[in-house]
TrEMBL record:
<feature type="transmembrane region" description="Helical">
    <location>
        <begin position="66"/>
        <end position="99"/>
    </location>
</feature>
<keyword id="KW-0592">Phosphate transport</keyword>
<keyword id="KW-1003">Cell membrane</keyword>
<feature type="transmembrane region" description="Helical">
    <location>
        <begin position="159"/>
        <end position="184"/>
    </location>
</feature>
<keyword id="KW-0812">Transmembrane</keyword>
<keyword id="KW-0813">Transport</keyword>
<comment type="similarity">
    <text>Belongs to the binding-protein-dependent transport system permease family. CysTW subfamily.</text>
</comment>
<feature type="transmembrane region" description="Helical">
    <location>
        <begin position="23"/>
        <end position="46"/>
    </location>
</feature>
<comment type="function">
    <text>Part of the binding-protein-dependent transport system for phosphate; probably responsible for the translocation of the substrate across the membrane.</text>
</comment>
<dbReference type="InterPro" id="IPR000515">
    <property type="entry name" value="MetI-like"/>
</dbReference>
<feature type="transmembrane region" description="Helical">
    <location>
        <begin position="277"/>
        <end position="302"/>
    </location>
</feature>
<dbReference type="Pfam" id="PF00528">
    <property type="entry name" value="BPD_transp_1"/>
</dbReference>
<dbReference type="InterPro" id="IPR051124">
    <property type="entry name" value="Phosphate_Transport_Permease"/>
</dbReference>
<protein>
    <recommendedName>
        <fullName>Phosphate transport system permease protein</fullName>
    </recommendedName>
</protein>
<dbReference type="InterPro" id="IPR011864">
    <property type="entry name" value="Phosphate_PstC"/>
</dbReference>
<feature type="transmembrane region" description="Helical">
    <location>
        <begin position="111"/>
        <end position="139"/>
    </location>
</feature>
<keyword id="KW-1133">Transmembrane helix</keyword>
């Protein structure tokens, strides 16, 4: 019995490495390392300069401890940013869906340009708009909320006659983070596989049912990423909140329409840094370190949630 010769296994051709590929790979690696080094340097600077504040006594801080001092500021930052995200997220998703799946092509292009331009407006402009236009306009609404929903802690009042309250600041922050959230959601929705959309429509789904079954599950990671990017910007916003809010840095309250408002970490730094000396500078830098850690944690959580969402959509 004659043995059958086994044909030789064809080897895959080796990829050709071009000089341009090496240059691009090196530049990409250098950019990534630069970001890591920069973040490490910022964290080290904040820790070194703010460390004296963590062990300072009550007579130096004006509070029982550093955490007692930073607690109301951290509360104000989280409260204003969470409110802004809650107000902006549904609107951003709705605008992105309209641009990507409802609007005619020319109108979608025009809306996209407007959204992108809105992201370029300086924060100080939003702040002055909020204090001169939005705040006085919303005062009757705040008085109505106090009269009809005053049993809720959010609208207990007394409503401030100036309108310089936490809810006004949150509305302005919502307008500020709306462009970046809308842009991210729009790009993700536009990348939904066309075959998935056509298959849903072929099975008799309406346009909204197609969006609910095919577009939103696929774009879940993008929605989360856009929301966290917006939250990161709201947490770090300084001028708009400083201009609008009438703050008391020691107050912790959920009342959104009263004149007693908690301050935020960025606003507190902006207001007090020019006159701070010695340990006061260390205290402000230490509060900046707390905000840095909070923002880093929010972005890390967003990355993990977005990765799981993308894997689920792909599966």
């Amino acid at each position: 019995m004659t043995a059958t010769a086994t044909p030789p296994v064809a080897q895959a051709p080796k990829a050709v490495t071009r000089p341009g590929d090496k240059v691009f790979s090196g530049l990409a690696l250098a950019a990534a390392l630069t970001i890591l080094v920069t973040l490490t340097g910022v964290a080290a600077f904040l820790l070194a300069k703010g460390y004296p504040a963590f062990g300072a006594g009550a007579e130096d801080l004006g509070a029982s401890s550093f955490w007692t001092l930073v607690g109301p500021l951290l509360f104000g930052s989280v409260l204003s940013s969470a409110l802004a995200l809650l107000l902006a997220a549904p609107v951003a998703v709705g605008i992105a869906l309209y641009i990507s799946h409802y609007a005619p092509r020319r109108a979608a292009r025009a809306f996209g340009y407007v959204i992108d331009l809105l992201a370029a407006v300086p924060s100080v402009v939003f702040g002055f708009w909020g204090i001169t236009v939005l705040a006085p306009y919303l005062v009757p609404g705040y008085q109505w909320l106090e009269a009809n929903l005053g049993f809720l802690p959010f609208f207990a009042g007394p409503a401030a006659n100036s309108g310089y309250v936490m809810l006004t600041a949150a509305l302005v922050l919502a307008v500020m983070i709306l462009p970046i959230m809308t842009a991210v959601c729009r790009e993700v929705f536009l990348q939904t596989p066309r075959l998935h959309e056509e298959a849903a429509l072929a099975l008799g789904a309406t346009r909204w049912e197609m969006i609910r079954m095919a577009v939103l599950p696929y774009g879940r990671s993008g929605v989360v990423s856009g929301a966290m990017l917006g939250l990161g910007r709201a947490l770090g916003e300084t001028l708009a909140v400083t201009i609008i809010l009438s703050v008391n840095p020691t107050v912790i309250t959920f009342n959104l329409i009263s004149g007693q408002n908690p301050s935020t970490i960025p606003a507190n730094i902006a207001l007090n840094f020019p006159e701070a000396t010695g340990l006061g500078v260390s205290v402000l830098i230490a509060t900046g370190l707390v905000l840095f850690v909070l923002t880093f944690a929010v972005n890390y959580l967003a990355r993990s949630v977005a990765s799981r969402g993308f894997s689920g959509a792909a599966g």
